[in-house]
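Project standup — Tuesday

K.O.: blocked on the structure for the chain from last sprint. Re-posting the sequence here as requested.
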Amino acid sequence: MNTEDNEKILAELKRLYPDAAPALKYSTPYELLVAVILSAQCTDERVNKVTEVLFKEHNTPRTMLELTQEELEKYIYSCGFYHSKAAHILSASEDIVEKFGGEVPSDHSKLKTLAGVGQKTANVVYAVAFGGDAIAVDTHVFRVSNRLGLAEASTPEKTELQLKEAIPKSDWSKAHHWLIYHGRRVCHSQKPDCENCTLKNWCEYYIHRT
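H.V.: unblocked you, prediction finished:
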């Protein structure tokens, strides 16, 4: 993919989704962190229903730690993978309290030191909660960016590095949401709506399948 095509793709994504924003509901960096952990292999809609109940009494690291893992699992059961997610939330909460005085760190490298917080989660929290420049590669971003040709990589980690080369830094966090929206609305996993996609003229996937 050449630079000119990259620019055309990004300009069209921006035109299509000018108001693209996170679908997860949150009011603090901590709530966002918990929601992102819960969102792994789970819909944002489901996460929002779960956190609406959970956050009524447990929306800070300290109040979250009032729960045992078993109690937390009952809240988040419907999000799937509830054993590991509960463990990650409680471990991260403990680190936030003990290492950062109860406040989620705004520094990307410090976010990654939290137990149970990986690159994708750190990127989302850093970009969305603190306005940092980062690209979080979820399943939508991975699929769409590799189909379009913005990246050509076999893993989310490699995709992230390539997207950082293909996209201006000032657009990293916005492009993350553009790609998610396009993946949800047009470039579906099983049956992408290529015929009605305004990006098809530059899309590697479409060009090579026709």
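K.O.: great, moving the ticket to review. The CA atoms of residues 185 and 193 lie 9 Å apart. The mean pLDDT is 96.
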